[in-house]
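Worked example

This section walks through a single chain of length 95. The input is the sequence exactly as stored; nothing has been trimmed or padded.
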Amino acid sequence: MTIDIGEETRNVTGVELEHGISAGIHLRSLGKGMVSVFEEQDVRIENRMSLTEWDELPYMERVILVAVMRTKNAISNLQSEAEIRDGERKSKGRK
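Given that input, the structure is written out below as tokens.
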């Protein structure tokens, strides 16, 4: 999925949000391009799969499930960002 920002088209998972919340916790993968254990298990749990079921999935199916979750999260974040901006715009109009 992509989003147009000005004259530029970017992948939704690469858009930086202005109104993000941070707990100060940073997760990292074991190597460049790898998925963190936390993210992989979050996807497994979201799909109500046991560890055995997850392990038996072909690698490419796991990759697709992680990609789908990342895209859903990015879209949700962008929707929240748009709602915040709309609220700010409307509140400025009332002043």
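What to look for: Strands lie at 2-5, 8-11.
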